[in-house]
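User: Watch each token:
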Amino acid sequence: MAQPLLVVDVQRGFLNDFTRHIPARIAQVIERDGPDPILFTRFVNHPDSPYARMLRWHGCSTNDEIAIADELRGWVLPHRVFTKPGLAGISDELRAFVEAAGYDSIALVGIDTDMCVLKIAMDLFDLGIEPLIYADCCASTAGLQAHFAGLAVLARNIGADRLRDAGLSRGSLAAPIS
């Protein structure tokens, strides 16, 4: 049985200089490893969300910003995309799906390591599903320090042995210079 892959919030609205390399790396993992199924989460920032009300952040509120990154569109199946508000982690729909499937482990990739990837990994852990984080296929919109902070918290809370290297960083810790 192929390893399930959960692609966390790799959306146009989260692509910046620190994260722009992530969709291509995830595409490489998909082509190389043939994960099954490929699941996606996407964050939708509603006008009355805590982000809008308390932080005055209105990103990821338009269809263009919510859209999964172009490099991954070929693998997106509508019934495998799970919408979530904020740091909700695993939505009720995604929880029901992974519990019904009976997965022992799920590989995770995505954006932001220090926020949504971390929250979903810890939710899976709490469900008794082993999260395996491909660290070189994750990044943070806030930069390398935030990515490392997320990895440090994950190592402490779910175990450092669950942080993996997909072998796609070519020795670079930061986003490659284009």
Notes: The radius of gyration is 15 Å. Residues 5-164 form a domain with the Rossmann fold fold (CATH 3.40.50.850). Helices lie at 22-33, 50-54, 63-66, 92-101, 113-126, 144-159.
